[in-house]
Design a protein that fits this description.
By secondary structure, the protein is an alpha/beta fold. It has 2 domains: 115 residues, NAD(P)-binding Rossmann-like Domain (Rossmann fold); 196 residues, P-loop containing nucleotide triphosphate hydrolases (Rossmann fold, 3-Layer(aba) Sandwich). The chain is built from 12 helices and 11 strands. InterPro entries: DgcN-like (IPR011669), DgcN-like_C (IPR035086), DgcN-like_N (IPR035402), P-loop_NTPase (IPR027417).
Length: 337
């Protein structure tokens, strides 16, 4: 994608922790590439990076403003466009993973042309995606699935990559969303792929491999979310996963953005995902549960993980706060090192 670093991460006027997940993901997993954050005075959130204006960020070495927010519908609002124009005028390229494309905003295209800057639309899928064929392919694949969207599937997948590599295992993160693509430097923006090609896109991004290694595929959405279940279904079919890790936010009260839909149970979610996955891999197994316990005390989190493990008969951990060793142990036990 050739997006120039270092980055200035955009928070703007955001007041939703989940809504800044792209900026936060970069700050956590690629902090060495992030020189600062840009936020307005009414933004109560921070990534604990230096707060900078656009000229100040350029002086500090920033090359690209990353619009790392995810608002409803992925729209480029008027405030965001004005900020992006100001960043371009200060000397920054702009990268965005929103559904609205930068190239479709005349003010941004004009500013970029006048100042010789680049616009990067991360949510552009490749033009050569095939239709999925469901044929068995070599290699081992693990897919993270969830009770809801934005429950920690990307974090869990990246933590598993780190944990498995620490064991000397070959493991590679396969990004399927804009944040993961920015972190990994490549992948497929699955929610921008035409429905008929979703499974083919995953077959393409996670092809056959013969080195004994694992493709760790970032999950998207949830089979139980009315807005995103279609993407989750195609992902399960295209991934042909050997192993599933179930991700869940235990303090969430309802499906994200849908207060009239309650969260499904963990066992219910796991059974549904296994059933759908069996279409292309009848031997698929569940290997663990990943909980996002960031809003819980450590004592409560450890107790919940233990109770969940007992209930489901699977290792359960918070991959980011507690590590992934129990899940990696199960992977090794089931599939070998």
């Amino acid at each position: 994608m050739m997006i120039a670093g270092p980055y200035l991460l955009y928070l703007g006027h955001s007041d939703d922790e989940v809504g800044i997940k792209t900026s936060r993901g970069l700050a956590v997993f690629r902090r060495e590439l992030c020189v600062g954050e840009f936020r307005h005075h009414d933004c109560p959130l921070t990534l604990s990076l230096p707060r900078m204006g656009f000229p100040e960020a350029v002086t500090a070495g920033a090359k690209t403003l990353v619009l790392g927010i995810a608002n409803a519908g992925g729209m480029l609002g008027a405030d965001l466009v004005r900020d992006a124009v100001a960043a371009i005028e200060a000397g920054l390229d702009v990268a965005s993973g929103l559904h609205n494309r930068l190239r479709d905003e005349p003010a941004l295209v004009d500013a970029a042309a006048r100042h010789g800057r680049k616009l990067h639309d991360v949510r552009d899928p490749r033009p050569d995606i095939p239709i999925g064929n469901g044929k068995p392919r070599a290699g081992k694949r693990l897919l993270t699935v969830g009770t809801d969207c934005s429950v920690g599937k990307m974090y869990a997948t990246l933590c598993l990559e780190t944990g498995m590599r620490a064991r000397g295992m070959r493991a590679d993160f396969r990004a399927t969303g804009q944040t993961g693509i920015l972190i990994a430097g490549g992948g497929v923006p699955l929610d921008a792929v035409i429905a008929d090609f979703i499974s083919g896109a995953i077959e393409q991004v996670s092809p056959a491999r013969d080195d004994g290694g694992w493709d760790l595929i970032e999950g998207q959405g949830s089979l139980f979310h009315p807005s995103f279940a279609g993407v989750s279904t195609g992902l399960l079919h295209g991934a042909q996963p050997d192993a599933l890790v179930l991700c869940h936010d235990p303090v969430r009260e309802h499906m994200r953005g849908l207060p009239h839909y309650q969260l499904p149970g963990l066992k219910q979610t796991l059974e549904a995902n296994l059933a759908v996955a069996r279409l292309t891999n009848p031997a698929v197994q569940a290997v663990g549960v990943a909980l996002n316990t960031s809003k819980m005390t450590r004592e409560a989190a450890e107790r919940l993980c233990a109770d969940t493990a007992d209930e489901l008969g699977l290792p359960c951990t918070d991959p980011f706060a507690m590590g992934v060793e129990p899940i990696v142990d199960r992977v090794v036990s089931c599939f070998g090192a």
